[in-house]
Amino acid sequence: MESKNDRAAMWDERFARNEPVYGEAPNAYLKTQSKRLEAGASILVPGDGYGRNGIWLARQGFRVHTVDVSSVGVERAQQTAEAGGIEMKIEQADLATWNWPEAQYDAVASIFVHLFPADRQAIHGNMLRAAKPGGIVILQAFNPGQLQFTSGGPKQTELLYTAESLRQDFAGAKILELAEVVAELDEGRMHRGKGAVVQGVFRRK
Questions:
Q1: 85, 97, 137, 158: most buried by Cβ count inside 10 Å?
Q2: pTM, whole model, 2 decimals?
Q3: Domain residues for 147?
Q4: Among 101, 107, 116, which residue's Cα sits nearest to residue 156?
Q5: Which residues contact 63 (CB under 8 A, 6 or more apart)?
Q6: Cα–Cα dist 21/50, whole Å
């Protein structure tokens, strides 16, 4: 299994490219689900890379805090936000060891954050606890069906999620929606074409 240093180095290399490999537009599922939130809501975006989702949310008037393991991605997000006059909190940290806030956000947006089984359940639990009571976690990730497609994502089955695994991880939440679907992805060169995803919205009780 790759180490956390290996993981950070992989993302650093990917985010150092001039090309925004996942595009600059927000994730389509996040864009749709953000309509559940009131104006000015506070949103945590873990694993936001170079900030494409967090920056878009901040431009919509939300109060945004993004976190990513890649120092290169974080620096790039900071530069983009500064150049655009966007106010948001951008932090570098490993989600497995980060001191997660509790009950601070109206929403947590986890978009294609693929975690190893040893970390997954604990980090998903931390995402839910980071939401205020009544707050939500919006999540989209690849499911095992993605292995038949060429639109990106991990090649290790253990890094792919099913609706049932998410049902277990968010067992303490009210499930507002949860489904495995084939979606048409258009998120830069590395997420383009048909993709097998699992997506859901979980409300903290």
A1: 137
A2: 0.92
A3: 4-185+192-204
A4: 116
A5: 40, 41, 42, 43, 88
A6: 10
Rg (CA), the chain: 16
In the chain, % helix, strand, coil (3-state, to 5) comes to 35, 30, 35
Other CB atoms within 10 A of residue 200 CB: 25
At 168, is the secondary structure helix, strand, or coil? Answer: helix
Structural domains of the chain, count: 1
- Strands (E) across the chain are located at 42-46, 63-68, 89-92, 105-111, 131-142, 173-186, 192-204
> What letters, b where the CB count within 10 A reaches 16 and e where it falls short, cover 33-44?
bbeebeeebbbb
Model confidence pLDDT, tens digit, residues 38-91: 999 999 999 999 899 999 999 999 999 999 999 999 999 999 999 999 999 999
Each residue's pLDDT tens digit, 21-33: 565 789 999 999 9
DSSP state of 26: P
Say which CATH number the domain at 121 has: 3.40.50.150
**Pair 149, 194: CB distance under 8 Å:** yes
The two tokens of residue 179 are 């489904």
Report yes or no: 108 and 46 within 8 Å, Cβ to Cβ: yes
CA distance 141 to 179: 11
Cα–Cα dist 48/17, whole Å: 16
Sequence letter at residue 175? I
